[in-house]
Design goal:
Elements lengths: L5 E6 L3 H11 L5 E4 L4 H5 L25 H8 L12 H15 L8 E7 L2 E6 L4 E9 L11 H4 L6 E3 L13 E5 L3 H12 L3 E5 L17 H6 L2 E2 L2 E2 L1 H8 L1 H6 L2 H10 L10 H4 L5 E2 L3 E8 L2 E8 L3 E7 L1 E4 L15 H5 L3 E2 L2 E2 L12 E3 L5 H4 L9 H13 L2
Parallel strand pairs: 1-2, 1-5, 5-18, 6-15, 7-8, 7-15, 8-11
Antiparallel strand pairs: 3-4, 4-5, 9-10, 12-13, 13-14, 16-17
Helix pairs in contact: 1-4, 1-14
The structure holds flavin-adenine dinucleotide.
Amino acid sequence: MNRTPTDTIIIGAGPYGLSLAAHLRATGRSLRIFGAPMHFWSNHMPRGMCLKSEGFASDLFDPDNAFTLKAYCGENGIAYRDIGLPVPLDTFIAYGLEFQRRYVPELEDLQIRSLARGAAGFELQTKTGETVEARRVVVAAGIMNFAYVPPLLADLSERWVSHSCRHSDLSGFRGRSVAVLGAGASAIDMAALLLDVGAKVQLLARRSAIDFHNAPVEPRSRFQSLKAPRSGLGTGWRSRLCTDAPLLFHAMPQSFRFRVVERHLGPAPGWFVRDAVVGRLPMHLSATIVSARVVGERVRLVFSQPNVGETQIDVDHVIAATGYRVDLARIPFIEQGLKSQLNNAEGTPVLSRHFESSVRDLYFIGAAAANSFGPLLRFAYGAKFAAQRVASRLANS
Ligand SMILES: Cc1cc2nc3c(=O)[nH]c(=O)nc-3n(C[C@H](O)[C@H](O)[C@H](O)COP(=O)(O)OP(=O)(O)OC[C@H]3O[C@@H](n4cnc5c(N)ncnc54)[C@H](O)[C@@H]3O)c2cc1C
């Protein structure tokens, strides 16, 4: 047992955890951060994907905002543009790992198995069995635990149905037939990359159309910039408000906040994947799945569409690119007693203006904070606001 309590422990080493750690180091308080660096990006997104966020909106954040993606690409001779040149996943991962080496060298590449109340505040157990005590804990564990599979499919085993986050290397699907469910960026990226590896792909979506982003047009006129200003979340006043006024968002009534988080910045695919899928695979739109069952060695999906009626297809595998739903109950490492003390609204943590939960000294950053601070928190771009805000709070309390 490590007897000296650590001042702050961060759980998770993605863009949020790493950015916060880089800020906290400057405060001189004792800090430990646990997790495999950029693990979600390197293990739970399909290889070959490009980021949807523009280059300038794909940074991790050190206190001086010096080591940007642009700086990394410049140092390494990698093509980069603030806008209009999609960032390859591999580049972003390599950048994140370099950020970690430079700004968070103390990172411990270990999974946290449990988090509970303890004498010093909190007690954590690592996967290797070490018990660690901390005064404060920041949960920066991302969305992995919140993968959502529609109930009709949830009972089929992973041999037949898997969530999109289960796949990084798609080469095992070569020559196999796959139905991809969803109409968002994950679904369309997945479908395009499956085609690339030689899978036979069909897309099923509830939406009546795939709502691709438009390619950015640069330079923009003054009128265009006034009408729809650019922000790290895209163009438009709504997105701009989301990036510039997360505290105003926090002050709004809960029903408004939840509605905006649900509806704004829906799951639109990037403009640059349009040509890779349109006309290259069957797309069953306005489709509602009626049943899914295993017949012989395949999955039989029955779905209905207006004016078409019911259609049946048999495929080797179904990939549910059906998104993520934040739900505290699904975070496996938070011990039940502690969970029951957390105030939640529809399963998401209720957070103060400083990201603190109803349990004193326990903080949540990243997507788990989106219902409090807005859609900004679902993107790497929000890590700056979160890191600055939490670091200044922890430094001063
Ligand atoms: C397919 C896809 C594409 C996306 N594209 C973009 C994009 O282009 N731009 C963008 O800004 N956002 C994008 N996102 C959203 C993206 O997930 C978030 O922006 C980003 O990951 C937020 O960073 P984070 O640090 O909160 O979470 P993560 O990057 O998920 O990091 C959290 C980390 O915590 C770790 N962790 C979890 N539990 C534990 C534990 N018990 N112990 C130790 N470590 C733990 C996880 O392994 C993970 O590495 C995309 C998401 C998906 C699914």
